[in-house]
Amino acid sequence: MALTSMLAILKSCATHVGIVVVPGRPFSSKTRYVQRTLFSRISPLGSPHESMTPVLDQWISKGRKLQAGELRYIIRNLRSRRRYKHALEVSEWMSENQATEITTSDHAVQLDLIGKARGLDAAERYFTSLSEQDRGDKTYGALLNCYTGERLLDKSLSLLGKMKELGYVSSPLNYNCLMCLYTNLGMHEKVPEVLLQMKEAGISPDAFSYRIALNSFGARSDLESMEKLFGEMKSLTNVPAEWVSYSTMVNYFIKAGRKERALFYLKEWEEIMQNDALAYNHLISLYASLGSRNEIMRLWELLKTKSKKKLNRDYITMLGSLVKLGDIGEAEKLLEEWEGSCQCYDFRVPNVVLIGHCQQGMVEKAEELLHDMIKRGKAPTPNSWAILSSGYMKKDNMDKAYECMKEALAVHSRNKDWRPKSPLVSNILSWLRLNKPDEAESFSSLLRTVPNYNPESCLTDHEVGLLEDVDQICESEEEKERVHGNSNER
């Protein structure tokens, strides 16, 4: 988790949209009513192939009223869960069926959703179709977010210039988008320039602006400039020195081997920290990176006293820290504590201990632990078996690596986001070709059962021949077409 602050910035850059969504009141009686009725019908329709339009039409056909604010709440909720296609369908339905005036914010949201669900070309066509009156600052900001999300530097700079001419750049939001773009392009030296432009334009940077800039200095190992900027940030009354900024600072000092400065900011951070469990998670992880076992144990006890309920996330952080310190015995004790209190068996927690055993070369012990969980009625995810497969590969036990990967593929439906690692699959396929050629195609067929995974993508030129050998196995042109057809569909 020591790198999480950097990843958090990049993630924020990817989702930092230049639009404002009109908020619903999540705890109002009206919102709760929507959740129990209309939203409760929409929410379970998770497949992108299912349309929201019939549900909305049916709702209205029964004489029920639906306010624009309620629809905006549903759109916001779907969008927060990355159900962009469904959110877009509700947005378009609202535009076509509501007598309520559609605001520039509504257009901005719809443009952003079009970009995510249908691509940049569709988003640009939508923007072009709008009248000048509907192309407000939020709509321009949404288009800018589309450009920066696609990492289109020239288009982003051109559009931002147009926005400045129109007087649509009056907040840090759009500058932050540009700084995020430079970060994602690896052009960290450009970020401070944008920060300076913002100040010269009379726009005060916000906390996010400073975080991106701090990261840009750290990424270039310019720690003196990073500290100077952080001092500037702390001197401002309107920009809080958030713990995420401290985490960014400490992470770069640890990377540079400057333990004293890292410890200085860790102590300063703890002095101003509120009872934020996530902040404690980051503190524990960073102290683990410094090898400070006493500190992580102290903070763990503090976290337990300050949090009414420990989350799986907390255990994952603490277990990961113990594993990082090589204290696998203490990690096993903590895992037992978690198993005695957890209400839902989340395999991400024991997977950390499996990784710890594998890192110490004790893959057999990790497999024994996994089989014990299975005997107790727990259903492992493919990730668990893949951890063992990787561990066995590193010990040159390819037979066991192959068997564990087959187990992972057999249960891949338990984690729809899981994909086997290409280097691991590539090594297994190479080994099969040399040692068990008769099983190579059946393994490739198993790989093709994983959605959106193409086994050919992880092959070297040498290994591509393995799949070409299928031609020699097929007994008919029809069978040949079936095999290659399935491959092309993936």
What is the overall pLDDT average? 85
Give the DSSP E fraction (strand runs of 2 or more residues).
under 5%
Report the biggest beta sheet as strand number plus sense, adding barrel if it closes.
none
Structural class, by secondary structure, is mainly alpha
What does this 3D model show about the protein?
The chain has 490 residues and is mainly α. Among the domains are: 69 residues; 73 residues, no CATH class; 67 residues, no CATH class. It contains 29 helices and no strands. The longest helix is centred in the N-terminal third of the chain and has 15 residues. The radius of gyration is 26 Å and the shape is globular. The C terminus is likely disordered.
Structure at a glance:
The protein has about 500 residues and is mostly helical.
For the structure shown, list the relevant keywords.
490 residues, globular, 70% helix, mainly alpha, 0% strand
Please write out the topology.
Elements: H1 4-15, H2 29-36, H3 38-42, H4 53-61, H5 68-80, H6 84-97, H7 104-118, H8 120-129, H9 137-149, H10 153-166, H11 172-184, H12 191-200, H13 207-219, H14 223-235, H15 243-255, H16 259-272, H17 277-289, H18 293-306, H19 312-324, H20 328-341, H21 348-359, H22 363-375, H23 382-394, H24 398-410, H25 422-435, H26 437-447, H27 461-468, H28 470-473, H29 477-489
Helix pairs in contact: 1-11, 5-6, 6-7, 7-8, 7-9, 8-9, 9-10, 9-11, 10-11, 11-12, 11-13, 13-14, 13-15, 14-15, 15-16, 15-17, 17-18, 17-19, 19-20, 19-21, 20-21, 21-22, 21-23, 22-23, 23-24, 24-25, 25-26
